[in-house]
Write a structure and sequence with these properties.
Layout (H helix, E strand, L loop, with lengths): L1 H8 L10 H4 L8 H14 L29 H7 L26 E8 L11 E10 L4 E6 L5 E8 L5 E5 L3 H7 L5 H14 L5 E6 H10 L3 E5 L3 E3 L12 E3 L2 E5 L1 H9 L6 H22 L3 H5 L2 H8 L3 E3 L3 H12 L6 E5 L5 E5 L5 E5 L1 H12 L11 H10 L2 E6 L6 H11 L3 E7 L9 E4 L4 H11 L6 E3 L9 E5 L11
Parallel strand pairs: 1-6, 3-12, 15-16, 15-19, 17-18
Antiparallel strand pairs: 1-2, 2-3, 4-5, 6-11, 7-10, 8-9, 13-14, 17-19
Length: 494
């Protein structure tokens, strides 16, 4: 089997770029209160809204001093924290200077590693979560790609006792890097492993633990998500070698940090790890929506000392302050409809049981290459909603649509099909969904059709949290609309 894997691996060119940033694998220590300010800005940035916010934990706000409510910021950060243009105050600390952010002109990619750090364990730890976050300043687009922890790959640069390449689960790369003294440690080897096996150049890493996840969400007052299905997990781990059963109902839910962590980690759904990966991406976008919608940054900034205490031991990264500020500015400029997401799921892998009895996933590399291309090679930024340019873009996408009734009144799928066809949409299927207990309408974009997806959401008043990414270009249709019990056909011009 090892020979087969090696041959499959070599069937796709790697083409990994040797960049100065990727080669410099040391952990950065940020000036005291700069990191706190930066982390709060990252919360609002969007693409890096979830995990990069944890940079607040890295040697952050212990020495932050604020006189009254005033701070002096350079133009770039001033715009992030105060887009309306009002003055934020004058300098309060002699010699205090916030550097200008790095101006990114090409795609920049960050590997986020969520470590499975448990009580009374010293590590090193496997990565429970691996997500690539990437932004392209030229296309004004961004992408999230979730990598399953059981992906069976070669760990580059690591040999076994007989001198043979080590082939293991991808989530062990962080462990091998730490115990084998790889330059830069576990995160550096995890970056190299992703580059080597997926062919995606990775510039930076951010490592976070679950405590930081909970604290961040509680800090912003929780998040709102649309849960796609009922979940009951009787064996959710309690972190102390026991169980803490978890359940949540389908539909709109407000989650605190502890519940959000359970929602993002549980595997007790039909799609197991793959469903979990999609929920993690949903949580990322929910945090972005919460911070931007409620303009929370100024208030959070004043709480920097508290945030420092919560996050100081939870994060490490190889981003410099200038690079992180530049990443904030880039990510904030990208609208949510230009953030594509995908999961390397059962459509891109094959089940395999190793000679040791381990259940793992063999990557189907050609299909994975197609997925990565669909996510990372986006076209130019979309036109504004409702404009003639947007109508042209919708027509150019030529999206195929399926309408499926999952809880609306009988016959509604056919009515929606007629309604959309009168407006120029190409509906190729109308029928029933897999079940009839969907409380809320959902739109699933399988092929990266942002213009059509946005137009459908506006027509039927579907909230952002109910727009999901299937990221499966080989799916029979491009977009699926699942009609829930809350669905109402617009009254005008039916």
């Amino acid at each position: 089997m090892k020979q087969e894997i090696e041959l499959t691996h070599r069937s796709i060119p790697i083409g990994v770029r040797a960049s100065a940033q990727a080669a410099e694998y040391r952990v950065r220590s940020l000036p005291p209160w700069y990191a706190a300010l930066l982390a709060l800005a990252l919360l609002a940035a969007g693409l890096v809204a979830l995990y990069t916010a944890y940079t607040i934990a890295y040697d952050a706000a212990a020495n932050l001093e604020v006189s009254g409510n005033s701070l002096s910021l350079p133009g770039g950060l001033q715009q992030i924290l105060n887009p309306g243009g009002a003055e934020t105050g004058s300098a309060t600390q002699p010699g205090l200077r916030i550097p200008q952010g790095t101006q990114f002109t090409q795609r920049v990619t960050v590997l986020v590693l969520g470590i499975d750090q448990r009580q009374n364990e010293r590590g090193p730890w496997r990565t429970d979560t691996m997500i690539l976050l990437s932004a392209d300043p030229r296309a004004q687009s961004a992408a999230m790609l979730s990598i399953p922890r059981d992906l069976w790959v070669e760990i580059p640069g690591i040999r076994d006792a007989e001198g043979n390449p080590v082939i293991e689960r991808i989530n062990t790369a962080n462990v091998f890097g730490d115990i084998r003294d790889y330059p830069g440690g576990g995160p550096a080897l995890a970056m190299r492993t992703v580059e080597y096996n997926l062919g995606v150049p990775v510039d930076y890493y951010i490592v976070v633990n679950f405590t930081a996840f909970e604290n961040l969400i509680d800090t912003i007052g929780g998040i709102d998500v649309v849960v796609p299905q009922d979940i009951y997990d009787p064996t959710y781990p309690d972190g102390a070698n026991g169980y803490e059963p978890f359940s949540i109902k389908a539909g709109p839910q407000h989650l605190d940090g502890r519940t959000a962590l359970k929602y993002a980690r549980t595997r007790h759904t039909p799609g197991s790890d793959f469903d979990r990966a999609r929920r993690q991406q949903q949580v990322i976008l929910a945090i972005r929506d919460k911070v931007l919608r409620f303009e929370m940054l100024p208030t959070l900034l004043m709480r920097a000392p508290e945030l420092y205490a919560n996050f100081r031991d939870s994060v490490k990264t190889n981003l410099t302050l200038e690079q992180a500020i530049g990443l904030v500015q880039l990510a904030q400029s990208i609208p949510q409809e230009r953030i594509r997401s995908g999961v390397i799921d059962q459509n891109y892998t094959s089940d395999y049981v190793t000679p040791k009895g381990e259940q793992v996933l063999i990557p189907q590399r050609e299909k994975i290459s197609e997925l990565i291309d669909s996510l990372f090679n986006a076209e130019a930024a979309p036109a504004a909603a409702g404009t003639p340019d947007e109508q042209a873009q919708i027509a150019a996408e030529r999206a195929t649509i399926a309408v499926r009734n999952g809880g609306a009144e009988a016959g509604m799928a056919g009515q929606v099909k007629d309604y959309l066809e009168k407006r120029g949409f190409k509906v190729v299927e109308a029928g029933n969904a897999d079940r009839f207990d969907y409380a809320h309408t959902q739109i699933i974009d399988y092929a990266g059709k942002p213009y059509t997806t946005r137009a459908l959401a506006q027509l039927f008043n579907v909230p952002q949290g109910a727009i999901l990414s299937g990221a499966n270009p080989s799916y029979p249709v491009n977009i699926v609309i699942i009609l829930g019990r809350d669905f109402k056909l617009p009254e005008r011009e039916q």
